[in-house]
């Protein structure tokens, strides 16, 4: 373990590494390091080799540079990390195999938790179940089980990690026979967002058990799972690569296979690849038995460039095709599911591949564009109660694009979305699209909405999340943003032109806190009025002015009583709204019939203005209990046009001619208004208010006394300073 704070600083400066090394969350890393078990490790950026190793992902676009990698070794370690990142609101990531295709899903600039040390493969005594650590890749599991004649419903290639796969769904070579990986989980061992170490199964934390079956990293950190074992004999299969001339015949064979196959042990995946010389394909054949099944005869007439099909052990079978070809490339998955693969749908896929293949790819650095066709049988009959809905056997099509340059991310993700939209239309036309089909979590684009991934299960998942993670600790780890369906990255909207798409208009929540204009007025006939306005502020200070904004009545378009009173009597009073008076502020905000005296309704005592025009006959009432009051002389109204009646606003400006301050509001030592005593309240967004209590002083450096006096709002001081300066200047001469 490296303890390197001092060294890091010195070295970073001396070799100019400052920009390259991320030290943002170093203190959090050190806090974590102090709590870990002896077998855990913390790796810092300076340990270049092991750091690069520990943060590597399958796609380059999924890698980030964290402040540290924490290699946890026990559930207790995971618990300590979660408590610390939760309390310090530090972004973190959980990496199992690092196969997630979405940036930020298993990477972070904060604390990178590596599950690599959870590498157990522990068979139960009766060999019916096996506990697998979430730091493993599937090959590690098969290497232990296959020699014993056993296997699990796990990954189809050697690369993907056990962890992400087993909380994201899990399409397997055995899916036709047993369902998805999640359907074979007996128990998840999990650390909850608040650090509690527990497990989830059919008999314990059932809601959590449901949520983890497809809910990915939103409900805690799973450290291992107990899976059902299944028998494993030798298998028959391998890879066949087809030239573009064979593609039409191959697609026909795939359609026939999809229609005719009833043997759940027979499966295929076909990858359709775009290329400048035309579309080519690769098909992986798999039979969960030692000899070729009759159904694969469908493919015998299709001319292949090469073939590796034949009998082998399951582990040797997996080595027949590469799964690390995208290292050093950027990329994404994106998917759509249908109930079948029809000729029309397959033709549309080929059509897309042909069209994209002809693009001069070097322009957008696209190096591999492929469509993976996965025709399962009725595997949904094995479905258990899972976050990812799959009981009606959705057949996924996975778009798998890879490219070289980060500048092309937006272009290719856009191209994938466009391709999906086109395919959806074709699927609808072909009658193979269903509203209940969602995007498979492990293939879904990162900005998919909750509904797009979890469909009808979304509400239940939200409720579980609310219960299990009220502090939203898991939001600090990137992942499917299904918690807020409205969330958009890089939000930009044009008010009254484009929708913000949020449940509440965010505008009023942006400029906060706003002082409350608690304004009292009198009508020409002496009727008193008091109302709070959420837009109020001072304007300049010599002499001081204030302004308030009042919208026009939504129903009639008439102006507010306050504005009518101010314009006709040419005066008003501002009262400081305080926490102690909040109920009265609330009561005075009610829409009351004209002529109702809000002072009476709110139980407030009156005191009267004496400095304003006409005060002898008809003075303005002031809130006696309020510690600060301004007597104001009306100056002018600025009428801002709106889009409708609701939008039209009267900005009323008044000159402050009298300032009343209660004795108790002034601190006897400093002579300042004491906000700890007055506790002013302010308007925030939505229905929220803030109360002022804590303040801190910040004197902007380098300003001369004159400017500081201006900032303080003290005309006398500004004048004195200017006079003195004049004297000094003269003295110099
Ligand atoms: C084939 O692709 C072209 C160009 O992308 C598109 O305009 C056309 O509608 C597609 N046809 C089918 C059958 O998908
Ligand atoms: C942690 O969360 C679980 C699930 O909501 C809850 O049952 C448990 O009481 C919490 N533990 C602590 C220490 O807050
Ligand atoms: C405008 O006034 C109506 C009541 O007439 C009120 O409901 C609404 O919130 C006000 N809007 C603004 C922008 O102040
Ligand atoms: C404000 O008034 C409403 C309606 O009378 C009441 O439900 C609410 O509790 C009041 N809030 C405060 C802080 O006085
Ligand atoms: C309100 O008063 C402060 C203090 O004098 C001053 O800095 C600020 O500029 C004033 N606001 C406006 C809008 O004039």
UniProtKB/TrEMBL annotation:
Entry keywords, A to Z: Signal
InterPro entries xrefs: BBE, FAD-bd_PCMH, FAD-bd_PCMH-like_sf, FAD-bd_PCMH_sub1, FAD-bd_PCMH_sub2, Flavin_Rdtase-like_dom, Oxid_FAD_bind_N, Split_barrel_FMN-bd
GO MF, one example: FAD binding
Keyword Signal tagged: yes
Domain (FAD-binding PCMH-type): residue spans on this chain: 62-232
Pfam families given in the database record: BBE (PF08031), FAD_binding_4 (PF01565), Flavin_Reduct (PF01613)
KW Signal (keyword) present: yes
UniProt signal peptide: 1-20
Family matches, as PANTHER family: BLR2425 PROTEIN, FLAVIN REDUCTASE LIKE DOMAIN-CONTAINING PROTEIN
Family: Belongs to the oxygen-dependent FAD-linked oxidoreductase family.
Descriptive protein name: FAD-binding PCMH-type domain-containing protein
Source organism: Cladorrhinum samala
């Amino acid at each position: 373990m490296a303890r390197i704070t001092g060294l890091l600083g010195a070295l970073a400066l001396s070799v100019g590494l400052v920009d390259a090394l991320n030290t943002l969350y170093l203190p959090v890393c050190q806090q974590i390091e102090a709590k870990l078990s002896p077998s855990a490790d913390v790796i810092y950026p300076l340990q270049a080799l092991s750091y690069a190793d520990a943060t590597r992902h399958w796609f380059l676009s999924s890698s980030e540079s964290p402040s540290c990698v924490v290699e946890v070794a026990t559930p207790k370690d995971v618990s300590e990390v979660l408590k610390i990142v939760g309390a310090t609101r530090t972004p973190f990531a959980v990496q199992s195999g690092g196969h997630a295709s979405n940036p930020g899903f298993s990477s972070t600039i904060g604390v990178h938790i590596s599950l690599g040390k959870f590498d157990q493969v522990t068979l139960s005594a009766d060999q019916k179940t096996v506990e697998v650590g979430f730091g493993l890749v599937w090959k590690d599991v098969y290497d232990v089980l296959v020699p014993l004649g056993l296997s699990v419903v796990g990954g189809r290639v050697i690369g993907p990690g056990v962890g992400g796969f087993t909380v994201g769904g899990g399409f397997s070579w055995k899916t036709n026979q047993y369902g998805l990986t999640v359907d074979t989980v007996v128990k998840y061992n999990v650390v909850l967002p608040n650090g509690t170490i527990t497990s989830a199964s059919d008999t314990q934390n059932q809601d959590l058990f449901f949520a983890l079956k497809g809910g990915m990293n939103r409900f805690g950190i799973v450290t291992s799972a107990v899976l059902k074992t299944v028998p494993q004999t030798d298998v028959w299969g391998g890879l066949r690569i087809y030239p573009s001339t064979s593609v039409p015949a191959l697609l026909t064979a795939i359609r026939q296979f999809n229609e005719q196959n009833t043997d759940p042990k027979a499966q295929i995946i076909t990858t359709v690849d775009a290329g400048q010389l035309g579309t080519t394909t690769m098909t992986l054949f798999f039979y969960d038995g030692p000899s070729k099944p009759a159904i694969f005869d469908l493919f015998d007439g299709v001319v292949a460039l090469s073939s590796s099909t034949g009998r082998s052990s399951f582990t040797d079978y997996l080595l027949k095709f590469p799964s690390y070809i995208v290292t050093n490339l950027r990329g994404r998955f994106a998917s759509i599911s249908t109930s079948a693969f029809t000729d029309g749908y397959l033709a549309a896929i080929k059509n897309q591949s042909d069209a994209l293949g002809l693009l001069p790819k070097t322009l957008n650095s696209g190096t591999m564009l492929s469509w993976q066709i996965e025709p399962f049988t009725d595997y949904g009959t094995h479905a258990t109660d899972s976050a990812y809905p799959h009981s009606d056997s959705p057949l996924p099509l996975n778009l798998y694009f890879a490219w070289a340059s980060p500048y092309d991310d937006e272009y290719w993700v856009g191209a994938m979305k466009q391709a999906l939209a086109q395919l959806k239309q074709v699927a609808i036309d072909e009658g193979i699209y269903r509203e209940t089909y969602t995007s498979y979590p492990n293939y879904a684009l990162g900005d998919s909405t909750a509904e797009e991934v979890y469909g009808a299960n979304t509400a239940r998942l939200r409720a579980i999340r609310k219960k299990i993670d009220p502090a939203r600790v898991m939001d600090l780890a990137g992942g499917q943003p299904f918690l807020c369906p409205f969330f958009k990255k890089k939000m930009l909207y044009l008010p009254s032109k484009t929708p913000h798409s949020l449940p509440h208009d965010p505008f009023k929540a942006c400029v906060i806190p706003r002082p409350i204009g608690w304004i009292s007025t009198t009508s020409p006939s002496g009727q008193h009025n008091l109302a709070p306005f959420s837009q109020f502020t001072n304007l300049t200070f010599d002499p001081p002015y204030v302004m308030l904004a009042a919208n026009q009545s939504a129903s009639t378009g008439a102006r507010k009583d306050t504005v009518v009173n101010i314009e006709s009597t040419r005066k008003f009073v501002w009262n400081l709204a305080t926490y102690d008076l909040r109920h009265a502020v609330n009561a005075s905000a009610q829409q009351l019939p004209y002529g109702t005296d809000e002072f009476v309704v709110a139980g407030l005592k009156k005191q009267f203005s004496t400095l304003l025009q006409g005060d002898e006959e008809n003075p303005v009432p002031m809130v006696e209990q309020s510690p600060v009051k301004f007597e104001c002389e009306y100056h002018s109204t600025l009428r801002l046009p709106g889009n409708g009646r609701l939008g039209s606003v009267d900005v009323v400006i008044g000159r402050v001619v009298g300032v009343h301050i209660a004795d108790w509001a002034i601190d006897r030592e400093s002579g300042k208004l004491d906000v700890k005593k007055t506790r002013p309240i302010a308007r925030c967004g939505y229905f929220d208010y803030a109360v002022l209590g804590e303040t801190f002083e910040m004197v902007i450096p380098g300003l001369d006394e004159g400017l500081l006096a201006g900032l303080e709002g003290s005309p006398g001081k500004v004048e004195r300073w200017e006079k003195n300066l004049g004297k000094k200047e003269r003295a110099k001469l």
